[in-house]
Amino acid sequence: MATRALLYRRPAEPATVLVRHGSQFFTVRLRRHRRARRYTLRIHPTDREAILTMPPRGTIIEAKEFANIHGGWIAARLGRLPKAAPFQPGTVVPLRGVPHRLVHRSGERGTVWTETRDSGEKILCVAGGVEHMDRRVHDFLKREARKDLQKAASLHAAELGVRVRRISIRDQSSRWGSCTSAGSLSFSWRLILAPPFVLDYLAAHEVAHLVEMNHSARFWRVVDKVCASVTRAKTWLDTHGNDLHRYGIQE
Question: Hey, how many other C-beta atoms are within 10 angstroms of the C-beta on 189?
């Protein structure tokens, strides 16, 4: 085994540490990263847990001390997370920014579709067993996200004269999208929950990286060239973006 592999391989290490703050206890997940220079903490919005990143030579004792010192920060951040909205009957979920109530239709064929009630309320109908509702809604939203993002990315790529080789739809917690120099784009499926101008901005943002692989002034000029809603979309994400992570999360 290579020397580097031996350095980072610590199979006996615990995966988590327990932190106490007042009368509350929190499980903190440990993550060792070879490029980390210090201990850092972040909150995973969908898993609803604290993650502590450790430098290569960090110790579990030091990690636990660091987590305990920041117990108040962990409690405050977890306490501020929006209430979970699981994909169950009655939950209201935004689809392209428009609220839709989830309705179970056990006696009908199909998977997931939209309807409008006489009252004007938008609903998202889910067929089949209620135990499969969560998965079917997730699958539906991912398909819709892929469809909208592929369309938007293709339009922006044509405007800029670049080629998108591949689009991946994931559940990214730290960023809404990413781009590789090889032309592969990755997006969070949760963008389908946001208004269309937000999804369009993110598509334009990542496609623009195929022209400028940075966040320089030149990059932002490219984004502005193909997207007229940059400021509006960034403001929406700053205000409402964190709320999108609560959907599909079990209480």
Answer: 21
How does pLDDT run across 45-97, given as a tens digit for each residue? 778 889 999 999 999 999 999 999 999 999 998 888 888 899 999 999 999 99
Note down the domain range covering 62. 3-79
Half-sphere exposure of 45 (CA within 13 A, CB side): 20
* Same structural domain, 138 and 227: yes
Q: Where are the alpha helices (DSSP H) in the chain?
A: 3-8, 60-69, 71-79, 133-160, 196-208, 217-226, 230-240
Cα dihedral value 147, 150, 154, 155, nearest 10: 50
Q: Which residues pair with 40 in a beta bridge?
A: 53
Q: Computed over its alpha carbons, how large is the radius of gyration of the chain?
A: 21
pTM: 0.77
DSSP code per residue over 213-233: SS-SHHHHHHHHHH-S-HHHH
Tell me if 87 is assigned to some domain.
no
For residues 149 and 203, the answer to whether their CB atoms sit within 8 Å is yes
Number of domains in the chain: 2
* φ/ψ bin of 161: left (φ > 0), alpha (ψ from -120 to 50), beta (otherwise): left
Q: Please, are residues 10 and 32 in contact by the beta-carbon 8 Å criterion?
A: yes
